[in-house]
Amino acid sequence: MKLSAINTIAIIIFTLSASGQNNWHDVGGGVPVPSISTMAVDTANHLLYIAGTFETAGTIVAHQVVTWNGNLFAPVDCPNGLSFELFGPVQAGAFINNKFVCGGLATMVNSGCPSAPIVQIFTKMQFDGNHWDSVGTNWPGYINCITSFQGNIVFGGSIGNVNMYTTNQNANNITIWNSNQNQWQVLGASGNFGVTWPSGNAEVIDAIEFNGELFVSGIFSHAGGTMLSNFGIARWDGNNWNNAGMLPVSFGHFTIYNSELYLAEYGGSSIYKWASNDWQLFAQIPAIPGNSVTDIIEWDGKLVITGVFTSVNGVTANNIAIWDGLQWSNLGTGLSCLNCSVVYGTVLSYLDGSLYVAGSFDRAGSTIVNGLARWGPTVEINELLIDKINIQPNPVNQYLQLEGDLSLFEKLTITGIDGKIIFAANVQQKSDISFLGDGIYILQLTTREGLILSKKFVVQN
Question: How far apart are CA 264 and CA 320, in angstroms?
Answer without folding.
Answer: 13
